[in-house]
Amino acid sequence: MMFRTARQLSRSRRMLAPVALTLLAFAGGCASSHPAKVVSSAGMVSWIGEMHRTIMEGKTAAQVHLADLPTTPGLNAVGPVEGLAGEITVIDGVAHVGEVREDRLTSSRRADAGAPFLVWANVREWAGQELPPDALTADSLEERLPTILHNAGFDLLLPKLPNP
């Protein structure tokens, strides 16, 4: 990744932290076969459905609908559209649905979409985290992320899942 100015580098560092946290939560949550209960606690990650069942078993029907989620500020979510027809992103309580229709990429703000799996958290305020200079590529960030999160006070063993 090339940066033209110090401002771009600084902005990318600020933007990577919430993205990295979301991806870490998304990867961990959707890999499990035990969906979490819907929790309203700030910062807790909740999910419904399983990435493995969707991809490997072709279970693409909606397991959750955006209308079922609270539309409160601070709600952030990611997941595929039912039938793998697009992508759902919820940022600060506003749902954005990206789909390909008639060979064109469309994006709309709507809450009527469903997802075979979805991960979300209610984050009312993001805490900035300065990234070390050696964590600016995707590979180096992935390698350093557990240490960065641990040093920032995150419990990397969450979510704690029940024993099967």
Structure explained in plain terms:
Helix content is 28%, strand content 24%. It is built from 3 helices and 8 strands. A 6-stranded antiparallel β-sheet has the order 1-8-3-4-5-6, covered by helices on one side. Strands 2-7 form a two-stranded antiparallel ribbon. A hairpin with a 5-residue loop joins strand 3 (75-80) and strand 4 (86-91). It has a domain at 12-125: 60s Ribosomal Protein L30, Chain: A, CATH 3.30.1330. With 164 residues, it is of the alpha+beta class.
Q: Return residue spans where pLDDT drops below 50 for at least 5 consecutive residues.
A: 1-40
Category from helices, strands and their pairing? alpha+beta
Number of helices: 3
Separation, N- and C-terminal Cα atoms = 42 Å
**Quick one: biggest sheet?**
6 strands, antiparallel
Average pLDDT, rounded to a whole number, is: 74
CATH architecture of the domain at 12-125: 2-Layer Sandwich
CATH class of the domain at 12-125: Alpha Beta
Give the overall silhouette: globular
- What strand order characterises the main sheet? 1-8-3-4-5-6
Summarize the structure.
By secondary structure, the protein is an alpha+beta fold.
Features:
single chain; 164 residues; alpha+beta; 60s Ribosomal Protein L30, Chain: A; 6-stranded antiparallel β-sheet; two-stranded antiparallel ribbon; 8 strands; disordered N terminus
